[in-house]
Amino acid sequence: MFYTVGEIAKKLNIPPSTLRYYDKEGLLPFVERSSGGIRMFSDKDFESLSVIECLKKAGMSIKDIRLFMEWCAQGDATISDRLSLFRRQREQVLSQIRQLEETLEILDYKEWYYETALQAGTCAIHENTDPQKIPKRFQNIQRRLHHPPSQDP
Asked: Is residue 88 part of a domain?
């Protein structure tokens, strides 16, 4: 069964313009065209498109996704290259996750901070707060925010 750009875009939950862009950038060499030049996507293409979307969401550049698609077309000789590419991208995603977790911790701390200030009617409530009165999960964050790490010359 074949799908139009609009139909496959709907299945992937992306705009049709994204698929047209991917095609223009050389990421979709596998896509067949009708005699009238209309892109026709098969069920088999769905997996490749899903992987492309995953790599894009993982922050991979169009250039590297194109390289990956070229390696796929070359067959088994490029398996180790593809594995290395996925391992590198996985490490980058793990790093991003760690950064986002730190960001979320600060957001949670500041939410607690302002909830407490709102209840007291002033942010001054925190000026002389005993550090032990800060919820345990926020104590390290509060220290990090108020006491930057020292830098050795």
From this structure: no
